[in-house]
Amino acid sequence: GKVPASSILASAPSDKNLDAWRELGCRTTHCNLEVLQESTLVFLATKPHVLPDVLQEIRPAVGSHHIIVSLVAGVTLQTLQRLLPAWTKVLRLMPNLPCVVQAGAMVFARGSGAGDEEAALLKSLLSSCGLCEEVPESYINIHTGLSGSGVAYVYLFAEALAEGAVKMGMPGGLASRIAAQTLLGAAKVMLETGEHPAKLRGDVCTPGGTTIHALHQLEKGALRATVMNAVEAATKRACDMAED
């Protein structure tokens, strides 16, 4: 809601990719250079192998007034600055899927040409899509392993929660809704209290109660170590993709 749809110009090779933008009331084009001519803040959201050609195309039109934000996985600020004019204001952004429901987790890093004003503008705009934090670029691959891929870990856990309830006799639809609300509520408590998750977990446990018996089973299944391994594996893969 911070920018009227009519102020947004989206470019893509085919109409298929532009239909969603038109439905939102945005203007569309098949010409990338037109976006540069009419916009100050430009988001690059291509596949990694497509980006070099796009940068070569737009490079002559990039001016000192432009702010270029890349959402492209694996492409470093160093590469972006090498393929664009040296003085270009470049930032690198990594969002995640829940941005589509304004509950995303995003991190961004700024290139050498981007200052506090550009960083503040990007953070202000993206705050409407969820949590947005500025970080060193080295954290971006970690964010991919933690949050970008982490959404899938949470869905797997939610599925397991619901299936456990189904096993005990609850209808599947109801179990899925309760599992989702449980995750939503737990996350909200973490964010609003700022408490460490270990402390909040302890608050739920009572001596000899249901929760500590359940947690014992999760510990026997090495849940924490497995999740830590998953974040590590996804982070390493993100680093490998950047090197490729």
Automatic annotation (TrEMBL):
Residues the record lists as binding NADP(+): 45-48
Gene Ontology terms describing biological process: L-proline biosynthetic process
Keywords, ordered alphabetically: Amino-acid biosynthesis, Cytoplasm, NADP, Oxidoreductase, Proline biosynthesis
All residue ranges annotated as the Pyrroline-5-carboxylate reductase dimerisation domain in the record: 137-239
Enzyme Commission number(s) from the entry: 1.5.1.2
Catalyzed reactions: L-proline + NAD(+) = (S)-1-pyrroline-5-carboxylate + NADH + 2 H(+); L-proline + NADP(+) = (S)-1-pyrroline-5-carboxylate + NADPH + 2 H(+)
Chief subcellular location: cytoplasm
Source organism superkingdom: Eukaryota
Residue intervals of the Pyrroline-5-carboxylate reductase catalytic N-terminal domain: 7-74
Pathway: Amino-acid biosynthesis; L-proline biosynthesis; L-proline from L-glutamate 5-semialdehyde: step 1/1
Recorded coiled-coil stretches: none
Alphabetical list of PROSITE patterns matching this protein: P5CR
Keyword Amino-acid biosynthesis: yes
One Pfam family cited in the UniProt record for this chain: P5CR_dimer
Subunit structure: Homodecamer; composed of 5 homodimers.
Family according to the record: Belongs to the pyrroline-5-carboxylate reductase family.
Function as written in the Swiss-Prot or TrEMBL entry: Oxidoreductase that catalyzes the last step in proline biosynthesis, which corresponds to the reduction of pyrroline-5-carboxylate (P5C) to L-proline using NAD(P)H. Proline is synthesized from either glutamate or ornithine; both are converted to P5C, and then to proline via pyrroline-5-carboxylate reductases (PYCRs). PYCR3 is exclusively linked to the biosynthesis of proline from ornithine.
Protein name according to UniProt: Pyrroline-5-carboxylate reductase
Naturally occurring in which organism (per UniProt): Psophia crepitans (common trumpeter)
Gene: Pycr3
